[in-house]
Amino acid sequence: MVKPLKSLEFRSSALGDLRAFPGAARREAGFQLDRLQRGLEPGDWKPMATIGQGVREIRIRDEDGAFRIIYVAKFTEAVFVLHCFQKKSQRTAREDIALATQRYKELVRELKS
């Protein structure tokens, strides 16, 4: 039986940030997000427990650099995309972690109310 597609919900500026990715990275991001909507694992991901329980990061690499999509898919309502950005160094910038953490906390508050 085919599972219904889970909806995607972009938090704050995440959709605009994703649209700013170069073409190849944007296409790969769309493919990976489609996999999430179908209940599948993305090709390259890692847990981001420092941000929140169930938060993960999709890792995309191409000739234009390294790109990241931080999301949470554990809720029944939707796959929530918290933050999309280009990675500039080996470690994820503190600002990116803080922004995703803030958006995760806001999301959890909204879902509880």
Written overview of the protein:
This protein is of the alpha+beta class. The chain has one domain: RelE-like (YaeB-like fold). It contains three helices and five strands, in the order βααββββα. A five-stranded mixed sheet has the order 1-5-4-3-2, sandwiched between helices. Strand 2 and strand 3 form a beta hairpin. The longest helix is centred in the C-terminal third of the chain and has 19 residues, at 94-112. The termini are far apart. The relative contact order is 0.20.
What keywords describe this structure?
single chain, Phage protein, 35% helix, alpha+beta, five-stranded mixed sheet, 27% strand, YaeB-like fold, 113 residues, HigB-like
Count of individual domains: 1
SSE class: alpha+beta
Unreliable spans are none
Note the gap between the termini. Answer: 33 Å
Overall 3D geometry? Answer: globular
Tally of strands: 5
Helix content percent band: 25-40%
Strand content: 25-35%
Name of the top-level CATH class = Alpha Beta
Organism: Acidomonas methanolica NBRC 104435
Protein name: Phage protein
InterPro entries: HigB-like (IPR009241)
